[in-house]
C-alpha cells in the first residue's frame, strides 16, 4: 500500500518534454500530477505478474502479454477479449492511457490498432520512476469499468502470417527482423537462449537484420530522434516503401514500430505481432537459418 515514503512532491512543470512527438512521450513529472485524474489510466505491460506484484505505479493495472494479449498459438486474442480487458482497465473513450513497463509499445500499438485517440508512453524505466521517489504501490488496482468500445482494426498497423508470406522478396516491402543476431542466425528460438520443441529457429527469407539496441538512455528514456536515426540502417529508413517489423512475441517489433513511426516519422510501418513464436512454430512457413 502506498505511504508517504512512496511519494515525491509534484514539480511545477507538468508539460511533456519539448523534444517528444506531439506529447506521445510523457515524463515522470507529467504523469505524477495526473495520477489522481480519473481520465488518466496507467497500464503496466509485462510477460508475467512478478514485477507488478512486487510494486507498480500507484493506480496502474497490469496487462500480461501471455495471459491477456496472446492466445495459445501466440496470436493476438480476439476483439471481444481485448474489449473486456480494456473495460476492466477503466479505459473510456475520453481516457488518456499511459503505458510503461517491459513492453509499453505493445499497449500503445494495440490501442492505436483499435482506434483509441489518446495513448502515451512513460519516458523512463520502472526503476527510474521508483528511484525518483514517485508514487508506487503494492496494492492491486481495480478502477471502475470503462466504456471504450474497440473500433475496426486499422489494417495499416498490423500484418498477419499470410501478409508476411506474400511480401517475401517483394520490391517495395522490407521485412525487418529486430531480434538478436543469435536468433536471426537460428542459434536460438527464444531470446533467453532456449529452443522450441517442434519449432524452427532462423529468420523469414529476405528479412533484414535490424537490432534495436541503443534506443534508450541509462534512465530508460528514448534517445533523441537524431540519435535514433543512427540506430537504423539506411535501407530501413530510406525511401517510402513499406516496413513490416517482427521479433519473437511482438514486444520488440512494436517498439521498433513506435520509434520509427512516432519518434522518427517513418511512414508505412506494420507490426507482425505473431512474430517468430507463430512463424517458427508453423510447419509450412519458409525459414532461413545461417
Structure description:
The chain is an alpha/beta fold and 290 residues long. The chain is 29% helix and 16% strand. The chain has helices at residues 28-32, 50-54, 65-69, 79-88, 104-113, 126-131, 161-167, 181-185, 225-231, 234-237, 251-264, 275-279; strands at 25-26, 40-46, 56-57, 61-64, 96-101, 119-122, 136-137, 158-159, 173-177, 208-209, 242-246, 269-272. Helix 5 packs across helix 11.
Topology (SSEs and partners):
Blueprint: E1 25-26, H1 28-32, E2 40-46, H2 50-54, E3 56-57, E4 61-64, H3 65-69, H4 79-88, E5 96-101, H5 104-113, E6 119-122, H6 126-131, E7 136-137, E8 158-159, H7 161-167, E9 173-177, H8 181-185, E10 208-209, H9 225-231, H10 234-237, E11 242-246, H11 251-264, E12 269-272, H12 275-279
Parallel strand pairs: 1-6, 2-4, 2-5, 5-6, 8-12, 9-10, 9-11, 11-12
Antiparallel strand pairs: 3-7
Helix pairs in contact: 5-11
Number of strands: 12
Low-confidence stretches: 1-5, 7-20
Q: Roughly how much helix do the residues carry, as a percent range? A: 25-40%
How does the major sheet shape up? 5 strands, parallel
For this structure, the quaternary state is single chain
Q: State the order of secondary-structure elements, H for helix, E for strand.
A: EHEHEEHHEHEHEEHEHEHHEHEH
Q: Rg to the nearest angstrom?
A: 19 Å
* Mean pLDDT across every amino acid position: 92
Report a brief summary of the structure.
The chain is of the alpha/beta class and 290 residues long.
Q: Tags for this entry?
A:
290 residues, alpha/beta, five-stranded parallel sheet, 12 helices, 29% helix, 16% strand, globular, disordered N terminus
Amino acid at each position: 500500500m502506498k505511504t508517504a515514503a512512496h511519494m515525491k512532491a509534484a514539480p511545477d512543470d507538468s508539460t511533456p518534454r519539448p523534444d517528444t512527438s506531439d506529447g506521445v512521450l510523457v515524463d515522470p513529472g507529467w504523469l505524477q500530477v495526473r495520477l489522481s485524474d480519473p481520465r488518466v489510466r496507467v497500464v503496466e505491460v509485462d510477460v508475467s505478474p512478478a514485477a507488478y506484484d512486487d510494486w507498480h505505479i500507484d493506480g496502474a493495472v497490469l496487462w500480461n502479454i501471455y495471459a491477456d494479449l496472446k492466445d495459445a498459438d501466440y496470436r493476438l486474442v480476439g476483439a471481444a477479449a481485448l474489449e473486456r480487458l480494456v473495460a476492466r482497465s477503466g479505459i473510456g473513450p475520453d481516457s488518456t492511457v499511459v503505458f510503461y513497463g517491459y513492453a509499453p509499445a505493445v499497449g500503445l500499438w494495440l490501442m492505436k490498432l483499435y482506434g483509441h485517440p489518446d495513448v502515451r508512453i512513460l519516458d523512463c524505466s520502472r526503476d527510474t520512476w521508483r528511484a525518483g521517489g514517485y508514487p508506487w504501490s503494492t496494492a492491486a488496482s481495480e478502477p471502475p469499468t470503462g466504456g471504450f468500445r474497440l473500433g475496426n482494426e486499422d489494417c495499416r498497423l498490423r500484418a498477419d502470417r499470410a501478409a508476411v508470406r506474400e511480401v517475401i522478396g517483394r520490391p517495395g516491402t522490407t521485412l525487418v527482423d529486430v531480434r538478436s543476431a543469435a536468433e536471426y542466425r537460428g542459434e536460438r528460438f527464444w531470446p533467453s537462449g532456449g529452443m522450441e520443441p517442434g519449432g524452427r529457429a532462423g529468420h523469414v527469407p529476405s528479412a533484414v537484420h535490424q537490432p534495436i539496441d541503443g534506443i534508450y538512455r541509462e534512465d530508460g528514456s528514448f534517445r533523441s530522434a537524431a540519435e535514433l536515426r543512427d540506430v537504423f540502417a539506411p535501407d530501413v529508413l530510406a525511401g517510402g516503401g513499406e516496413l513490416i517489423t517482427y521479433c519473437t512475441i511482438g514486444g520488440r517489433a512494436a517498439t521498433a514500430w513506435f520509434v520509427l513511426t512516432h519518434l522518427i516519422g517513418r511512414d508505412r510501418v506494420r507490426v507482425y505481432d505473431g512474430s517468430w513464436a507463430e512463424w517458427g512454430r508453423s510447419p509450412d512457413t519458409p525459414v532461413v537459418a545461417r
